[in-house]
Amino acid sequence: MRPDELSRIRISHDLEHNITTIQSIAHSSADLLVDRFTAGGVRCALLCCEGMVSTSVITELILEPVTSLPDIGTPGALLRYIQDRLLLSLDRPEVTELDSLFRLMNSGFAVLLIDGLEKAPAFGVQGYPTRGIQEPSGEANIMGAHEGFAESLHLNMSLVRRRLKSPELVMEIITKGDISRTDLCLCYLQDRVPPELLAHIRRSLGKMKLEAVLSTGYVRPFLEGKGFRIFDSAGTTERPDVLSSKLIEGRVAVLIDGVPYAVVVPRLFCESFQTLDDYAFKPYYVTLIRWIKYAAFLITVLLPAVYTAVVVYHPELLNSTLLMLLVEAEKQAPLSILTETAGVLLMYEVIREAGIRLPKPVGGAVSIVSGLIIGDAAVQSGLVSTPLLTMTALAVISGFVVPELNPQVTVLRFAFLIAGSTLGLFGIGLLACAVLINICATEDFGFPYTAPISPFRLSGMQDTAVRAGFRKMQERDFTVEEYLEK
Amino acid sequence: MTEKQLTRQQLAAMLLMTDAFALFCLRGGLSAVTAAAFAAGCGVQFVLALPFVVTVRRGRELPRAAMWTVLAFVVLWGGGLFRMLWDTAELIFTVPGNSGAISGRMLTSGLIAAVCVYAASEGRQALARASVIAAALGAVCLAVVAVSAATGSDWHGLTLAHSERGFLGDFTECFAMSGGVSTLILLLPGTKGEPFADTGAYFAAKGVISAVVILTAALVTGGIMPLVTCPVITAAQLSQPFQTQRIDALFLMIFAIFAVFALAVQTVAAAGALGRLIPQFRRLRSAAVTAAMLGAAFLPISHEIRAVGTAVLLLMPAAVLVTDRIGGRK
After folding, report:
1. In chain A, fewer beta carbons within 10 Å around the N or the C end?
2. Which of A185, A264, A257 lies closest to A223 in space, CA to CA?
3. Of B73, B26, B20, which is closest to residue B212 (Cα–Cα)?
4. Cα–Cα–Cα angle for B24, B29, B30, nearest 5°?
């Protein structure tokens, strides 16, 4: 039954009718627990979902106090007594229809149905097992905190709140997914966030009519601009400290229950090259590292294509020593350079995918087989030339510097390789134009993805071209609204 | 939805890339006199553009007939750029030039046109943002070529360089190669900031770039100028910053990038103007404009007519101002 249909079914004053209806809607599911008892002289039933609640908390804080009540008389008096005097739980919403009842029950609440009442109190007694706080696996960091988001939404909210104790931090919970009924938490700093951004995000999330929300990928398309875009204008992070810094800059985050990542809007291209460690080291060092990252990005996308184009079509770009070296090596290889390069890159992608999907103990074996056996054997047998393997390895390793751009880098690397090997540098130039236009067309609710490079903001260069010191940056009082294009 | 405004840098980048591409394709002899004539031409164009700047400051829109004229000029200029691309493609070594089935320059021009259509389809704002980045990249590459030319060439070449057109002919050529002013007329009203400063910055940058490119070309190709078809392209091929390797293939990339942006800017500006003139025409405006430009590429329009067209276009807003004044007196 759909949520809107469920919300039309009201709780009736007949306890048995309510229980029958609920069991019928739940198809007598095995994890629906119904505990009938008499409290204060009134027939009641406590409903909860097995595995979602803490049985010890229910027994100690709800069942024992409620069942030991003296005869109160009417159901209304019983409800008032429970709500005003017993204070069984901090979180005590009241439900009047079945959609809320099921949503709360399946979120770890215990619902107390009272015979003769058309509403029921619910108590937050969540007790389901969750993964604890662990170090983030995808956003490694040396000097910062080592806490990452977990799957529990409320735990994630507390991780952010611990870092931003300001009353301006607002967390709104909305439920999405007709079947999953997933809680989403919209986080923002009220005094920092551009109001139009918040309004746009609320409107976009309102248009979301999914059956389930199981990962960030379900939400992101609704928070990004329309049309074919190579890069994501909504980012993700698994670090509460990174998220806190984004919120301070006036961005909006969406936390999803069951997902250890937060979606951050808007996202800028230059942010892919920034890490929290950048703000822990000396600015001159960070500036150097940042430029190395920019270079690494270009190397990982373009190196195989440029190598192929130069060797095949534009050898005059090489000096004579290097040219002779490459000619000598490629002379031995039996395949064309395009086939060789594409083959090596394809093998890398296969090995990478195998390494990720396989269980960790077997994943190690994949690296041994790929590195030692395939790599070494391919060169020894003369199937692949050593310079080409070196170039490809260099390109692949450079990609590790910006891991969050890996999907885009992988596809672009192949696209540029095809352009370079068929049309030379001319093809690379044309494809670069198309990609540049696509990147520049990417924007999120009026925030250009390429800011502050284009449209150019000199003040933005303090944390893009260089990393200025904190004394200088504190004068700026930056919020992302600076980049809003009107 | 209202269209976002361009910044001064974006406007300048879009227009300067068009002008730079036209310079790459410039044919005939170049000399220090040509550089002076082009610099003077840019100055005169700025003066002629002042009435238009005044109309923009007053928030006065050009009449529909004037807008149609500007649109027609942009289409003709776009066609002219296509023609320049077609003529120059055979002089530049591109890989399609080696493919047998389809003519090399047909493939080169076709691929550039295809990317231009895609660029135009992404809209004015995307193109404006990309233009700034591409122009910055192009400026760096041109600076490398200019510096390597200046350090590696004999300054005596500058005295050998000769332009058969003379100062007045070069001045006219500057006007003929300045079809970008029609794009300026379409884009300036949608630009942030002070129109006078925006226009002044554009013409100043155009004058400097034209002079530097022409002087560099004259310096490098000075001795062989009579034998050269496109001096700027030859200069890029001859001036090499390194002893043991050549970099002219990199100039090929810059040429391709500038060609794409030059054509895309005309397409976007014309499509925008068409949208204002015929609001009902929503879909395939860019494709229609590109088709019109391709058609215009076949029209035999002489340089003199182009030069006169540029001057008339710049003077048209003055006529609007005069009409306003007369209307106001009545």
Report:
1. C
2. A264
3. B20
4. 70
Q: Can you list the alpha helix ranges (DSSP code H) found in A185-332? A: 195-206, 216-223, 240-248, 283-312, 320-332
Cα nearest neighbour of B104 on chain A: A423
* Residue B113 exposed, middle or buried by CB count within 10 Å (0-12, 13-18, 19+): buried
The C-alpha of B99 sits at a distance from chain A's nearest C-alpha, in angstroms, of: 10
* Overall average pLDDT of the A406-420 stretch: 95
Q: Is residue B4 part of a domain?
A: no
Of B95, B118, B244, the CB nearest to A427: B95
- In a domain? residue B292: yes
Which pTM value belongs to this model? 0.89
pLDDT of residue A382: 80
Closest to A326 in 3D by CA, of A378, A384, A375, A388: A388
Q: Is the pLDDT at B100 greater than 70, yes or no?
A: no
**3-state SS record for A90-149:** CCCCEECEHHHHHHHHCCCEEEEEECCCCCEEEEECECCCCCCCCCCCCCCCCCCCCCCC
Task: Give the CA radius of gyration of chain A.
Answer: 29
The string of pLDDT tens digits covering residues B221-243 is 877 888 888 888 888 888 777 76
- B156's tokens: 């005596």
Angstroms from A140 CA to nearest CA on chain B: 31
Torsion angles phi and psi, residue A476, rounded to 5: -80, -35
**A307 and A369 part of one domain:** yes
Asked if residue B299 is part of any domain, the answer here is yes
The reply to whether residue B260 touches residue A430, judged by beta carbons under 8 angstroms, is yes
- pLDDT tens digits along A326-356: 888 888 888 888 898 999 899 888 888 888 8
Contact A433 B261 (CB under 8 A): yes
Tell if the CB–CB gap between A318 and B7 is shorter than 8 Å: no
Whether A454 maps to a domain, the answer reads no
Structural domain total, chain B: 1
A298: number of Cβ within 10 Å: 11
